[in-house]
Automatic annotation (TrEMBL), chains A, B:
Domain DJ-1/PfpI: 3-169
Residue ranges of coiled coil: none
GO biological process: regulation of DNA-templated transcription
Entry protein name: DJ-1/PfpI family protein
InterPro entries, per the entry: Class_I_gatase-like, DJ-1/PfpI, INH-QAR
Pfam family for this entry, one: DJ-1_PfpI
Amino acid sequence: MTKTIAFALYPGCTPLDLVGPLQVLTGLTAFDPSYEVVVAGADTRTPADTDTPLRLLASHTFEQVPRPAVLVVPGGGEPTLAALADESLVGWIREAAPTADVVASVCSGSLLLGAAGLLEGRRATTHWGLRWMLPAFGAEPVAERWVESGPVLTGAGVAAGIDMALHLAARLAGEAVARKIQLMIEYDPEPPLGGIDWDSPDIAGFGPMFDEMVRTALADQPALLARVTERTGPAAGDPR
Amino acid sequence: MTKTIAFALYPGCTPLDLVGPLQVLTGLTAFDPSYEVVVAGADTRTPADTDTPLRLLASHTFEQVPRPAVLVVPGGGEPTLAALADESLVGWIREAAPTADVVASVCSGSLLLGAAGLLEGRRATTHWGLRWMLPAFGAEPVAERWVESGPVLTGAGVAAGIDMALHLAARLAGEAVARKIQLMIEYDPEPPLGGIDWDSPDIAGFGPMFDEMVRTALADQPALLARVTERTGPAAGDPR
């Protein structure tokens, strides 16, 4: 029986969060036809805006994919935080999770897993600028590129989804297949300015921006805002 | 005056080719509002299929963006090769190029630049599996992550578009801005199995697959097929 890898699509998400792992795991289906990939959204006719000028269309509705073997939830900025209160999305994650082998997220997508109650007592990660929010969902924040905790696999910000998905491909189909996917998408990174300098003064400087983004996105959700701003975790913009 | 960065969208392209640089250069507009980003396609209502289950919608028609300052052309597999004969796309590239400061491509998108006559006498790159095709368009094939030759900037396969776009962001707006974009998309790569091993026996083994892909895609274009299969360059699947 074909196992379904379902990506969640919702308005305002960051397209690279979705498309990085989507390209990797669609590559997986070429080498291992026991998997298929779908993109699930509230409907398949209304394009979802993103935080770029590109609009995206799902291949399936949430209802059409009730029991995926693998779930991948992308993140984003303000719209993702607002989506913490979107029961059509969070409800689908909550209902699909118990029968899934892997529930994965990229970037702030892990907060959606948290809203679905999936991070209680788990180690998890998210975008560095929002890691302080994880304890509000019962999670222990971890500064790693991806974090595995039982069936839950959370990736760090945006581009980390590619690394996480290659790790997942190796787990699902073996290292040889993961290497072939990596070769086909020529993922042999050469960041022109090198890696990120986590000691850069830029980083803490972004803290107030993330804090403000959360407050704006959750202005209509006072209970949720109070919950996440209790701040049991590190401060906004604390990289490590 | 706002300078426009226009991404080309066409049916069957590889979404990561487009979305990697799109996420980077949309990030640029947040730090340098003298730039705007658009996604240009034949029309804005018909979703473009991709080589994944995701469908994409353009924000503008080609006609609406006749003179972008920067052009970015993504690649893909068979549909991109078939698009070498798509005059609505290739004609737009040809007409927009003379007034553009930068004409960029990702992966096999460089072949579309070639079809528009933009690679004559230039060093260029593309996906490793198709680099042998570049001499048919008058280009000298180069095995680098990205290659600059006057206004033409070509990137290697798929994921190379992220590196190329960060380089371009630094060129357009300075290294400090490029570093901020890199931080926001958390591009601090950790490929789980390390980088690509270019000496792997897998690589040459893919040669016949690329050769067959080209022959299938250009079956209806005998003149173009004859031109690209004259093979003045390296063999299909020759990585270096």
